[in-house]
């Protein structure tokens, strides 16, 4: 009787463990799907902004020349039998200080928009691949594949959030340089002050929320059992991204440092 019940109990326990791991997998899958939606929206905004700020390339722009407002008139030759029409040409000169400033702010604005678009397209593609391959690994893989899929989905989510927040910051930076390019100096200064105050306030509030909800790694409860964690240690080592120096001292990457505290898994 015990010999017959023991395999049955082991099978029931395995099913319960799989059910726990499935809940954890769905947790990460839902957050990645949410990031896909947000990154798609922000990428659409960035592309629309890029199209609106793009200017057709001309020879004068390529040579860094602009019209001065003066004209050169070349009268026709009336002494010959064939009369030549009078020609009027616009006088050009190289960019002055104001035009150079406008070109520089326009260049940085376009760069920030492109980086925002690139970061969100990165999030969109990586999240899509992680969702498809993660579900495939969890459903069709051998024993222990669901635990491995959960770990890889957690890493994909953390990296996607980092890049999404970077895209948000590039979008905010493009707003700053657009204001510096087209608005009156007083208005552009006001926009810069408001944006950077909101930037700092968001950073401060994210850190406060992360501290309030912080869960230390030694207190984290996961669905995998110790034996499964040891078997997947090689997987964690092989998929661990290269360590990079945190650039939280730079205001542009301040929010990213706060989000790393939120996304600790």
What structural class do helix, strand and pairing data support?
mainly alpha
Oligomer: single chain
Mean pLDDT: 76
**Count of separate structural domains:** 1
The main sheet comes to: 2 strands, antiparallel
Strand tally, please?
2
Order of helices and strands: HHEEHHHHHH
Uncertain residue segments: 234-251
Please state the overall shape, judged from the principal axes of the Cα atoms. Answer: elongated
Q: Specify the number of helices.
A: 8
The radius of gyration computed from the alpha-carbon positions, rounded to a whole number of angstroms, is 29 Å
Order of strands across the biggest sheet?
A: 1-2
- Per DSSP, what share of the residues sits in E-state strands of 2 or more residues? 5-15%
Give the termini distance in whole angstroms: 44 Å
**Helix fraction bin:** over 70%
Mind sketching the topology for me?
Layout: H1 2-53, H2 59-62, E1 65-74, E2 87-94, H3 97-140, H4 145-182, H5 185-212, H6 226-231, H7 233-238, H8 254-262
Antiparallel strand pairs: 1-2
């Amino acid at each position: 009787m015990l010999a017959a019940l023991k395999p049955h109990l082991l099978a029931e326990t395995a099913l319960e463990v799989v059910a726990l791991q499935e809940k954890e997998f769905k947790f990460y899958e839902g957050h990645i799907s949410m990031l896909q939606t947000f990154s798609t929206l922000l990428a659409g905004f960035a592309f629309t902004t890029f199209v609106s700020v793009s200017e057709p390339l001309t020879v004068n722009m390529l040579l860094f020349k602009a019209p001065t407002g003066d004209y050169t008139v070349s009268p026709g030759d009336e002494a010959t039998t064939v009369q030549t029409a009078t020609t009027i040409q616009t006088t050009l000169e190289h960019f002055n200080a104001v035009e150079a400033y406008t070109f520089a702010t326009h260049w940085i604005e376009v760069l920030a928009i492109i980086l925002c678009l690139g970061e969100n397209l990165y999030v969109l593609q990586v999240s899509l691949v992680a969702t498809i391959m993660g579900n495939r690994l969890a459903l069709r893989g051998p024993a222990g594949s669901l635990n491995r899929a959960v770990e890889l989905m957690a890493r994909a989510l953390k990296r996607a959030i980092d890049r999404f927040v970077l895209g948000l910051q590039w979008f905010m930076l493009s707003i700053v340089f657009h204001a510096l390019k087209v608005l009156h100096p007083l208005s552009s200064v006001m926009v810069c002050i408001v944006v950077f105050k909101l930037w700092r306030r968001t950073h401060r509030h994210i850190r406060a929320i992360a501290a309030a909800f912080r869960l230390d790694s030694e207190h984290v409860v996961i669905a995998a059992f110790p034996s499964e964690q040891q078997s997947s240690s090689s997987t964690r080592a092989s998929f661990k991204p290269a360590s990079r120096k945190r650039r939280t001292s730079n205001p542009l990457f301040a929010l990213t440092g706060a989000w790393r505290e939120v996304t600790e898994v």
